[in-house]
């Protein structure tokens, strides 16, 4: 069977409105003056992963639900401008959106508008199946309604990855994603015992690799029953925003995996790409290119 798509990205399309605030948490006040402006741009988790994969030269296709609205137009324009194939299923409730409050240190607080999805939403099964069967790999966002596509994806015989983000290890919503994927990404931010959670994912599911990102502490990698640590790398410039760093990590890790690199080199690619993302202003949607990834990975390997 012909696999004309390297990675199908499922879900996670939307827009963010960026507000730079003087500090987080933001103390209560009647009003704040935002001198840097309040800007809306396309780019949520699936968009960032798709942009990252495409920037590294992988043939990428994005499938999600979008509204016929200004936010949907921004998402369509992002994909068109980057040459990324997009299949947009109509969403009458509108395109997913969020407000990101960004502090001076680059940390963020995200406020998600949950009114723009419904529990009955579904991606058309024939569309999911056809795209999956044409793909080498599928990266599944944990946004609604992707969970309902997991059985079809497994039937299609394609490898899967997912990012559980700041899962606490207990919320049952994340479990179907955690246990269906061959590669699982998650953050250590909400975990009291990261290694225990990583091993549980591997034992109860089908994951060959579990990757727990820990920000400036680096990455913990579970493969072949062993947990190892990969240190963080220095960013190539000042840190201005952490938004999209995890998505950049996932895209570069998957690039390494799909090009036959061992897990530790995939993790190095991920840390380099994640560090690069932290230097990109939150009002932009950008990603590291392949040449820069190779150059910086070689530098850190040598040092």
Describe this structure in words.
The chain contains nine helices and 13 strands. Helices cover 32% and strands 24% of the residues. The chain has a nine-stranded mixed sheet, with helices on both faces. It is globular. The chain is α/β, with parallel strands linked by helices and 303 residues long. The chain has helices at 45-55, 70-82, 125-133, 150-155, 175-180, 194-204, 245-258, 263-277, 290-302; strands at residues 5-10, 15-20, 38-42, 60-66, 85-90, 97-102, 108-112, 135-140, 159-163, 183-187, 209-213, 219-223, 226-230. Helix 2 links the parallel strand 4 and strand 5.
Secondary structure blueprint with pairings:
Blueprint: E1 5-10, E2 15-20, E3 38-42, H1 45-55, E4 60-66, H2 70-82, E5 85-90, E6 97-102, E7 108-112, H3 125-133, E8 135-140, H4 150-155, E9 159-163, H5 175-180, E10 183-187, H6 194-204, E11 209-213, E12 219-223, E13 226-230, H7 245-258, H8 263-277, H9 290-302
Parallel strand pairs: 1-4, 1-8, 2-6, 4-5, 8-9, 9-10, 10-11
Antiparallel strand pairs: 2-3, 6-7, 11-12, 12-13
Helix pairs in contact: 1-2, 1-7, 7-8, 8-9
What characteristics describe this protein?
303 residues; nine-stranded mixed beta sheet; 9 helices; 13 strands; alpha/beta; single chain
Short structural summary:
By secondary structure, this protein is of the alpha/beta class.
What oligomeric state do the depicted chains represent?
single chain
Radius of gyration from CA coordinates: 18 Å
Indicate the proportion of strand residues: 15-25%
How far the N terminus sits from the C terminus, by CA atoms, comes to 43 Å
Largest sheet: 9 strands, mixed
């Amino acid at each position: 069977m012909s696999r004309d798509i390297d990675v199908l990205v499922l879900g996670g399309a939307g827009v963010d409105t960026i507000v730079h605030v003087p500090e987080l948490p933001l103390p209560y006040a009647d009003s704040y003056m935002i001198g840097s402006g309040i800007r809306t741009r396309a780019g949520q988790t699936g968009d960032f992963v798709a942009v990252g994969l495409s920037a590294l030269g992988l043939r990428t296709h994005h499938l999600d639900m979008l509204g016929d609205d200004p936010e949907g137009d921004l998402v369509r324009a992002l994909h068109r401008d980057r040459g990324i194939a997009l299949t947009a299923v109509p969403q009458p409730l509108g395109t997913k959106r969020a407000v990101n409050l960004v502090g001076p240190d680059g940390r963020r607080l995200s406020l998600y508008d949950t009114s723009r999805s419904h529990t009955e939403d579904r991606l058309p099964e024939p569309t999911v199946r056809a795209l999956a069967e044409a793909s080498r790999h599928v990266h599944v966002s944990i946004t609604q309604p992707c969970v309902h596509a997991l059985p079809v994806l497994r039937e299609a015989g394609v490898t899967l990855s997912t990012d559980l983000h700041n899962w606490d290890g207990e919320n049952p919503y994340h479990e179907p994603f955690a246990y269906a994927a061959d590669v699982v990404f998650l953050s250590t931010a909400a975990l009291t015992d990261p290694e225990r959670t990583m091993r549980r994912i591997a034992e109860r599911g089908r994951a060959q690799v579990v990757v727990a990102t820990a920000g400036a502490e680096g990455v913990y990698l579970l493969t072949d029953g062993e947990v190892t640590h990969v240190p963080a790398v220095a960013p190539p410039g000042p840190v201005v925003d952490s938004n999209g760093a995890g998505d950049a990590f996932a895209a570069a890790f998957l690039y390494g995996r799909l090009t036959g690199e061992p897990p530790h080199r995939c993790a190095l690619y991920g840390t380099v790409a994640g560090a690069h993302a932290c230097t990109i202003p939150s009002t932009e949607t950008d990603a590291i290119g392949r040449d820069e990834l190779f150059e910086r990975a070689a530098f850190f390997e040598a040092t």
